[in-house]
């Protein structure tokens, strides 16, 4: 009987030291790829560098830009300003191994502190190319739209 509450507590722990998200808030690439095909895909926001986004990015993802910079944070705020706080939001960067990423933590913290209850981080432990593009998940190559798509 004690195992169920203990396992629930373990799942709610941060994914790694210093990460503001729990392991339950990490979204596996295959799960995101499947949800992109669904009737209600999540709002996917790249919080990484524009040069990487232009090369390849998750299909239908918006570019906020690097959340480690004030302009990236401001753009992220703009993208989600009119978004319902119960929306399914996925953020990713993929510039480098996740423990070293300068962009995910500020973006995740901003969204959680803004009242978003369903924010998840795309689990790209190595980088975007290795963990998403090279595995054949849906990508696009283009310049980011200037505003979020209506939906």
Helical/strand content category: alpha/beta
Number of helices: 6
User: What characteristic shape results from the CA principal axes?
Assistant: globular
Order of helices and strands: HEHEHEEHEHEHE
Q: Report the CATH superfamily.
A: Rhodanese-like domain
Architecture, according to CATH? 3-Layer(aba) Sandwich
Write down how many β-strands occur, each being a DSSP E stretch of 2 or more residues: 7
End-to-end C-alpha gap: 44 Å
- What is the share of helical residues? 25-40%
- Please mark out the parts with pLDDT under 50 across 5 or more consecutive residues, or reply none: 1-15
| CATH fold category name | Oxidized Rhodanese, domain 1
Mean pLDDT: 87
Strand order of the largest sheet: 1-6-5-2-4
Cα gyration radius (Å) = 15 Å
Structure overview:
With about 150 residues, the chain is of the alpha/beta class. The chain has one domain: Rhodanese-like domain (Oxidized Rhodanese, domain 1, 3-Layer(aba) Sandwich). Helix content is about 30%, strand content about 15%. It contains six helices and seven strands. The chain has helices at about 5-10, 30-35, 50-55, 70-80, 105-115, 130, and strands spanning about 25, 45, 55-60, 60-65, 90, 120, 140. The strands form two sheets. It has a five-stranded parallel sheet. A two-stranded antiparallel sheet has the order 3-7. α5 links the parallel β5 and β6 (about 120). α4 crosses α5 (about 105-115). The protein is globular and about 35 Å long. About 30% of the residues are buried. The model is unreliable at about 1-15 (pLDDT under 50).
């Amino acid at each position: 009987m004690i195992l169920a509450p203990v396992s629930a507590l373990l799942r709610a722990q941060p994914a790694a030291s210093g990460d503001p998200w729990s392991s339950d808030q990490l979204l596996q690439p295959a799960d995101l790829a499947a949800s992109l095909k669904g009737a209600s895909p999540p709002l996917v926001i790249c919080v990484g560098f524009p040069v990487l986004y232009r090369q390849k990015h998750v299909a239908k993802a918006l570019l906020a830009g690097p959340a480690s910079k004030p302009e990236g944070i401001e753009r992220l705020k703009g993208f989600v300003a009119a978004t319902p706080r119960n929306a399914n939001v996925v953020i990713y960067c993929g510039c480098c191994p996740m423990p070293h990423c300068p962009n995910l933590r500020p973006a995740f913290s901003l969204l959680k502190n803004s009242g978003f209850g369903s924010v998840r981080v795309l689990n790209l432990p190595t980088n975007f190319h290795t963990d998403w593009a090279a595995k054949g998940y849906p990508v696009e190559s283009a310049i980011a739209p200037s505003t979020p798509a209506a939906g």
